[in-house]
Amino acid sequence: MYFLRFLIPSEIRSVFQNHSYRHYFSGYSATLLGNWIQRTGIGLIAWDLTRSEFFLGLVAFCELIPTLFFGPIGGAIGDRVPTKQLITYTQFLLMLQSILLAISVYTGFLTPGLLLVLVFLQGIILSFAQPAGALMSPALVDKNQIPTAIAISTMAFNISRFLGPLIAIIIVLWVGVGGLFLANSLGFVWYLWCLRRLRLRAEHDPVSEKSTSLWQQIKDGLSYSLKHAQISVSLLIVLLGTLFARPVIDMFPAFADKIFDHGARGFSWLLASMGIGAFLAGLFLSQFSKKYMLYIPAISLLFIGISLCCFIASPFLWLGCIFSSFLGFSFVMNGIGCLMVIQSTVRPDMRSRAVSLYYLSFRGGLAAGGALLGLLSEQFGLKPVFIATAIICFFASLALIKKISGRDLRSK
């Protein structure tokens, strides 16, 4: 164990010295692993039911589009309701959704329409769960540790992204696809148990005036975020990445089957490879995010464009997995890099609302991009569509880097 001190950066060790954070991290990691097991199952079922690239994009759309309507409400509620209470309710509802998916699979009632409904319900719940979940790290660690804590969560997320699809294949072989959703529900059970024993800092309880109307709080949060130099640029950067590049993940089942001819196993390896790159990006961000805070997500669009072109041009699965890992690295620099900027510069009483706008940009971009690029891919083919989006990301990055370099982006 003493030897590991030389392998683990000091910033990460200092965060894990916090007992409350370690306890929270245990339950959070369980839900992350279950989430990627379930996501693998949804992707496999969606492709098996329809063999349609458009339907893959439609599934992503149904999960993500609720954020456009409920995300701002979830952010405002997050600044009014105790964080632990809101997270507990949302995680319980997500657990019920996983159980319903498992029941529908084992009883043979799962249809494309029912799958879309259940995924849409999941999207509604996540509109409230994600802004609340983003408040946990600031509620457990010191302010100067927030970027590192977010990076740690990112590494855990992407370890799960690597392990989840591999575990999912084992579960499918032994107990069937329905077992993937049962495994996810067990992760929620552990997380809920951990939350019961967790105490947050009093100063991170809701700080917004409850006498203010919910609608006024939403407007105040929107005005504050769009006028804040660093937050507004971060929202634009993450929107570009999710709209034009991240939908390629939803197309992985089609790439694995049509391009690489490896079906479910190829899909799992692509996801797992992306998880490796994303984990390394989390480690990178834990060390360098403070020094190059806003440049990292802007440069990420450049990396996304290059990596996506190389992935599209890959003739073999093993080569596609290599560039899938590059994509994973770039996507984390884009999405989590922007979240770090927001979490590190936002006013405490605006935190949940600003984070909800981040998820609105993130998930809204994924929803629109998934549906649009899925439809275009079915009409014009996977490769031409994503080569075009890679070029857009490349030149958008150059424009944003120039804009950041020539503008005063100090926190307001």
Write up what this structure looks like.
- The protein has helices at 10-16, 19-50, 53-64, 66-78, 83-107, 112-133, 136-140, 146-175, 178-196, 214-227, 229-244, 252-259, 263-288, 295-313, 317-345, 351-380, 382-405.
- The chain is 80% helix and 0% strand.
- The termini are far apart.
- The protein has a single domain (18-195, 212-405), classed as MFS general substrate transporter like domains (Growth Hormone, Chain: A, Up-down Bundle), CATH 1.20.1250.
- It is globular and about 50 Å long.
- It has 412 residues and is mainly α.
Question: Helicity, in percent?
Answer: over 70%
- 3D shape: globular
Following the backbone from N to C, one meets helices and strands in this order, namely: HHHHHHHHHHHHHHHHH
Taken together, the total number of domains comes to 1
Average of per-residue pLDDT values: 82
Structural class: mainly alpha
At CATH level 2, the architecture is Up-down Bundle
Distance between the termini: 44 Å
